[in-house]
Specification:
This is Transcription regulator of the Arc/MetJ class. The chain is α/β, with parallel strands linked by helices. It has three helices and six strands. It has a domain of 68 residues. 18% of the residues lie in helices and 32% in strands.
Length: 98
Amino acid sequence: MIFKAVGDGRPYPDHGLETVKQWAAVPPRQVRLDELVTTKRTLDLDALLSEDSTFYGDLFAHVVQYGGVLYLEDGLHRAVRAALQQRPVLHARVLVVG
């Protein structure tokens, strides 16, 4: 199993971070893929296969920790890429909410 669970939507309250600049204030750290619950059920193959998928965005995935659970909000393609390369961890910005 790659992820702890596959979710559909964000079960946590709105945190107000919308831009890459806002997320940049959250320091990155490593998180285990098997501790993540996704907030998206589908993956855009173009994003997964694109070599420059992070060119216009953040280099790190965005994770929200809510109620002790780590939710992968943005960066599903990065997480799947890490899993395909048999890496058990992902570098992500982890925002603690509530």
